[in-house]
Amino acid sequence: MRVLRTLEVHSDHPYLLRLYGVSEAEFDALVNEDLKAEYIDGVVIVHSPASFSHEDRQAFLLTLLRLYVEARGIGRAVGGNALFQAGSRQFAPDIMALSSGAPIVQKKVMGPPLLVVEILSESTRDYDLGEKRAAYREAGVREIWWVDAEARVVMVERQGEGYVPERIHEGWVVSEAVPGFRIRAEWLWQDPLPSVVECWDMIRQTESGG
Question: What tens digit of pLDDT does each residue of 90-136 get?
């Protein structure tokens, strides 16, 4: 059996690399904490390192979401290269919120998370909004947030609403899958991003007020 052990890509530009005809076992042998990769229908999708602005927004949102789910005893929030598996497909969202009882086998979450957040970038936009979006829906992800900094919009899709996107440019973006969690969309368009501490205080102050 062909086993993929290392992958080296040298490029000055963002990329999305596809490796075809790979078995699930080969993917499991390839993927590690230093490589962001996904597995859809026999194809490995490898992501280039994220830009600074992408990482900054990811860290900002992950911190707020993690604080919230831990404070409310909902579960946990993870990001980066953490994987969840649905059937034979494996995904690495930028951020995901998991229920406290989410089954974890080795390094993967089995089954869809409560909430997935994807921050669109130059190299992943078509992939994220095309085949990955369809795959998330098929997997039964309860809620998806697509953060589009270029268009300054957060698109929210919910399973119970047929995944019809709600486009939010400013004001509160409120989760139903993680009850009570919310952010202000305009926080994400600021440069530099606002203080996480101040935003967390605002979330707590407004949680009960809607």
Answer: 999 999 999 998 888 877 899 999 999 999 988 889 999 999 999 99
What's the chain's length in residues?
A: 210
200 within some domain? yes
E-assigned strand segments in 20-177: 37-40, 43-47, 75-79, 83-86, 89-91, 95-99, 104-105, 108-110, 115-119, 143-148, 153-158, 166-168, 172-174
* Cis peptide upstream of residue 103 (ω within 30 degrees of 0): no
Per the listing, tokens 């649905």 go with 86
pTM comes to 0.89
Q: Is residue 127 part of a domain?
A: yes
The answer to whether residue 21 is domain-embedded is no
CATH number of the domain to which 173 belongs: 3.90.1570.10
Q: Which amino acid is at 57?
A: R
Q: Calculate the alpha carbon distances from 75 to 10, 24, 78, 117, 133 in Å.
A: 38, 28, 10, 16, 24
Greatest CA separation found in the chain?
58
Rounded distance, CA 58 to CA 49, Å? 13
Is 32 inside a domain boundary?
Answer: no
